[in-house]
Design a protein that fits this description.
Elements lengths: L1 E3 L6 E3 L11 H11 L8 E3 L1 H7 L3 E5 L9 H10 L3 H6 L1 E4 L3 H13 L3 E5 L5 H9 L3 E4 L4 H15 L2 E2 L6 H17 L5 E5 L4 H13 L4 E7 L5 H7 L22 H10 L2 E5 L1 H13 L11 H8 L8 E5 L6 H14 L3 E9 L4 H11 L3 E8 L9 E9 L3 H13 L3 E5 L11
Parallel strand pairs: 4-12, 5-6, 5-8, 6-7, 9-10, 9-12, 10-11
Antiparallel strand pairs: 1-2, 2-11, 3-4, 13-15, 13-16, 14-15
Length: about 425
């Protein structure tokens, strides 16, 4: 079960030592032999900025640089390579928001197996096209991975195709666990491993590899707050489905832990923490700007956990960047959210006198204060604006919280009524 361990969202798993994990290190090592020449040994990259915050070395395990753009090819190929000739002849079917889809599609292509992949209707277009590009037949439907999985199950029953589950199979867990073998080889003194977690295949596999060799290493699962099925499931002692999900991290938006992964994670994983949407946006922006790494929101979840509370995790820390497949439109939206969350965007409504030159004077003053104007809306007719005055809605590019506070304070000191929009009460951008 889980016990709440503070307000930051970290929960420690109370493991039952009598519970045996379905997948151990020997299965992971066997998977590594299967994957030789198929997957890459992805690099680790040092984050000096996070070093200072955490108080010791922080490394990124760059699975965003893996073939197909994520770790999923490891588990998919391991599963497909172990199918019998008769099973291969029937073909395979899978369900995924994109990363598992691409992994199955490429693995099937390499092994000469026909593949059909069910994807949610809102799956990122680049992931859909990449899956088709690897030769799989893609069928779109449903709003979530769980709904797509229902379609894949029906297809398997109707056609005899072998279902390649995105996480809930020992071969898939073993394949994903090869990431853990590489981590211990690349960062042998690692003390904490942070892993983005949806269904639990990557987390459980890494835990199998790490705990067998270094049982003192803390293995921490990171979930999006809007799709955090694991804390409640572990507290209940069994997988518990969520009533709904809402998160930009579609790669880890899984509404129910798997039966196999549940036993794996319950037996081996130490802790869970959850991160919010703003934290995910900040982490993706940080990864781009400071680490020069393109990661999807799910892949940035471990970075979000570090940025939220760096002192909580004992270094050396390895944060697994699990994937880099992101829709450019989603990326643009997330970057904008990340900039807003770090006070580099500021939206104001400023009331000024309705007289010639007043708007120009306001914008000149804003420029003098070092802000870059992105957008301006000048409202002269409104039931809420007194005669002789106008409201000016202005969006600004800023340099951070202190700059926001200085600008708002300066405008108010000049006699303007200033309303800061889109930030909570008490935000430093509100000024004095």
């Amino acid at each position: 079960m889980n016990a709440d361990n503070g307000t930051a969202g970290l929960r420690t798993v109370d493991r039952d030592p009598s519970t045996a994990a379905p997948v151990g290190i020997e299965e992971v090592r066997a998977a590594r032999e299967l994957l030789a020449g198929v997957t890459r040994t992805t690099p680790v990259a040092r984050s000096r900025v996070l070093d200072e915050a955490v108080g010791g070395p922080v490394w990124f395990k760059c699975e965003n640089l893996q073939r197909t753009g994520s770790f999923k090819i490891r588990g998919a190929f391991t599963r497909l390579a172990r199918l019998s000739d008769e099973e291969r002849a029937r073909g395979v079917v899978a369900a995924s928001a994109g990363n598992h889809a691409q992994g199955v599609a490429l693995a099937a292509k390499l092994l000469g197996i026909g593949a059909t992949v069910f994807m949610p209707a809102g799956a990122a277009l680049p992931k859909v096209e990449a899956t088709r590009g690897y030769g799989a037949h893609v069928r779109l439907g449903g709003a979530t991975v769980d709904e797509a999985l229902a379609g894949a199950l029906e297809h398997a029953e109707r056609t005899g195709a072998v279902l390649i589950h995105p996480f809930d199979h020992p071969d898939v867990i073993a394949g994903q666990g090869t990431v853990g073998l590489e981590i211990l080889e690349q960062v042998p003194d690692v003390a904490t491993v942070l892993v983005a977690t949806g269904g639990g295949g990557l987390l459980g596999g890494i835990a199998a590899a790490v705990k067998a060799q270094r049982p003192e290493v803390r293995v921490v699962g990171v979930q999006a707050a809007g799709a955090a099925a694991w804390p409640a499931s572990l507290a209940a002692g069994e997988p518990v489905p969520l009533g709904g999900m809402r998160t930009i991290a579609d790669g880890i938006a899984v509404g129910r832990p798997g039966d196999v992964t549940f036993r794996q994670v319950e037996a081996l994983v130490d802790e869970f923490t959850v991160v919010g949407e703003d934290a995910l946006s900040r982490a993706l922006l940080f990864s781009l700007e400071r680490a020069k790494m393109l990661v999807e929101p799910a892949g940035a979840a471990p970075v979000a956990a570090l940025l939220d509370d760096p002192a909580r995790f004992t270094p050396p820390v390895v944060a697994v960047l699990s994937g880099g497949n992101v829709d450019p439109l989603v990326l643009l939206h997330v970057i904008q959210n990340g900039m807003a969350a770090t006070a580099r965007y500021l939206s104001l409504v400023v009331r000024i006198g309705d007289r010639p030159g007043a708007l120009a004077t306001l914008l000149t003053r804003v420029g003098e204060l070092g802000a870059n104007v992105i957008d301006v809306e000048h409202t002269r007719i409104s039931a809420t604006v007194p005669m002789g005055e106008v409201d000016v809605a202005v969006s600004l590019e800023m340099r951070g919280p202190e700059h926001c506070r200085e600008l708002v304070t300066a405008l108010r000191d000049a006699g303007h009524r200033v309303t800061v929009t889109g930030v909570p009460e008490g935000d430093p951008r509100l000024g004095a």
